[in-house]
């Protein structure tokens, strides 16, 4: 009888500059066995985050670096095929850090993210997007760091992505007078205005961001939620209102820099002139409030106040190339890969 095989994608080399498919190797392994406190999960969906690019650099950051030869780390959803933990049984749909592999043997408690059952009515797409890492990041970054109030002008970069699209809509729900998204390409800009309810969108690939911000927000920006950094951050800094708040969520424009050290913003003195604050944040700092946020996000989705988009690619063999889509700007909303039914 044939032994079941577990296909995996492992880190083959630390990328130099732009990450590429050959930085990962396709491996055939035996199906793992599990110990007490573990579950064996057959993955159905893998989720992709730009932060994963940082996990494969040399050296630990807020999280341990993935080692060469190790299965690439990633969040995902799957079905429990075997459980040695009292809270789980065969057939449960669960989410957790399962990695780029078809089967994962994981600790229920000890893993980076505890393994959790999907709540009734929650699809894998929802669990990994609006109710998952990126939805929660948008929620806390916008509400606790950006702190929009009624009448504010709010600008979001990376606006048609998983985090940005939710962040902008949350500002609108909280009474922002004007929400402007910055995104790459006419299709994404059209989607932001026509589907996600943004008031305006700037296509940074064909427009001058600073000039357009000045035209659209002549009284200045009250809240800037930044996913991109670099020139985009400088353009926003040049257009602040007094007492503005800048929430630094990420800086994807430099994640594939060969130098590894992005330069700081040129326009930082605008923080002084506009008595403004710029604050970075990391999602884990809000971990005690994840349930509150997921409940609120779920309510907004159920009442049609919050739209979410997912970009679902197919086929486990396409895993690294699906990751690359984030840096090529090919995804609209959350980048996912369906690896099995
Ligand atoms: P995403 O926005 O769904 O996907 C990434 C998007 O970034 C792409 O679709 C692309 O959109 C844009 N992009 C790629 N390369 C770019 C470049 N060189 N310059 C400008 N834009 C570029 O990804 P996400 O998962 O929601 O993450 C968004 C940001 O949030 C990232 O910076 C990520 O690191 C950060 N994040 C932070 C936390 C935290 O705890 N602080 C947690 C999660 C995510 P365009 O087509 O518009 O260029």
Give structural notes.
- This protein is 25% helix and 26% strand.
- The chain has 341 residues and is α/β, with parallel strands linked by helices.
- The strands form 3 sheets. Strands 3, 4, 5, 6, 7, 14 and 15 form a 7-stranded mixed sheet that branches.
- Strand 11 (221-226), helix 7 and strand 12 form a beta-alpha-beta unit.
- The longest helix is centred in the middle third of the chain and has 14 residues, at 133-146.
- It is globular.
- The two termini are 24 Å apart.
- The model has no long low-confidence stretch (mean pLDDT 96).
- The structure holds NADP nicotinamide-adenine-dinucleotide phosphate.
- NADP nicotinamide-adenine-dinucleotide phosphate (NAP) binds next to helix 3, helix 4 and helix 10.
- The site of NADP nicotinamide-adenine-dinucleotide phosphate (NAP) has 30 residues, from helix 3, helix 4 and helix 10.
Intertermini distance: 24 Å
Question: What is the H/E string?
Answer: EEEHEEEEHHEHEHEHEHEHEHEHE
Q: What ligand species are in this complex?
A: NADP nicotinamide-adenine-dinucleotide phosphate
Radius of gyration: 20 Å
Poorly predicted regions are none
Number of helices: 10
Number of strands: 15
Task: Label the overall shape.
Answer: globular
């Amino acid at each position: 009888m044939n032994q079941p095989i577990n296909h995996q994608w492992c880190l083959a080399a630390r990328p130099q500059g732009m990450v590429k498919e050959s930085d990962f190797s396709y491996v055939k392994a035996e199906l793992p066995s599990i110990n007490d406190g573990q579950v064996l999960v057959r993955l159905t969906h893998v989720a992709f985050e730009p932060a994963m690019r940082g996990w494969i650099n040399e050296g630990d950051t807020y999280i341990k670096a993935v080692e060469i030869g190790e299965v690439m780390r990633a969040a995902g959803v799957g079905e429990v095929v075997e459980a040695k933990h009292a809270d789980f049984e065969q057939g449960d749909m669960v989410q957790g850090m399962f990695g780029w592999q078809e089967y994962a043997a994981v600790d229920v408690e000890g893993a980076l993210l505890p393994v959790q059952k999907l709540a009734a009515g929650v699809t894998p797409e929802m669990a990994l997007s609006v109710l998952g890492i990126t939805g929660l990041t948008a929620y806390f970054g916008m509400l606790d760091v950006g702190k929009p109030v009624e009448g504010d002008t709010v600008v979001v970069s990376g606006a048609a992505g998983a985090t940005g699209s939710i962040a902008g809509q949350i500002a609108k729900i909280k009474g922002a007078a004007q929400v402007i998204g910055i995104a790459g390409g006419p299709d994404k800009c059209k989607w932001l205005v026509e589907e996600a309810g943004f008031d305006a969108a700037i296509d940074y690939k064909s427009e001058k961001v600073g000039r357009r911000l000045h035209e659209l927000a002549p009284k200045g920006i009250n809240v800037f939620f930044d996913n991109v950094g670099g020139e985009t951050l400088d353009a926003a800094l040049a257009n602040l209102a007094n007492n503005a708040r800048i929430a630094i969520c990420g800086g994807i424009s430099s994640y594939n820099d060969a130098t590894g050290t992005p330069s700081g913003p040129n326009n930082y003195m605008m923080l002084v002139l506009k008595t403004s604050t710029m604050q970075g944040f990391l999602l884990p700092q809000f971990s005690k409030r994840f349930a509150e946020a997921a409940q609120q996000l779920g309510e907004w989705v159920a009442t049609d106040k919050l739209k979410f988009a997912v970009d679902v690619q197919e086929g486990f063999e396409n895993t690294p190339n699906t990751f690359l889509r984030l840096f090529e700007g090919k995804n609209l909303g959350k980048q996912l890969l369906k690896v099995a039914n």
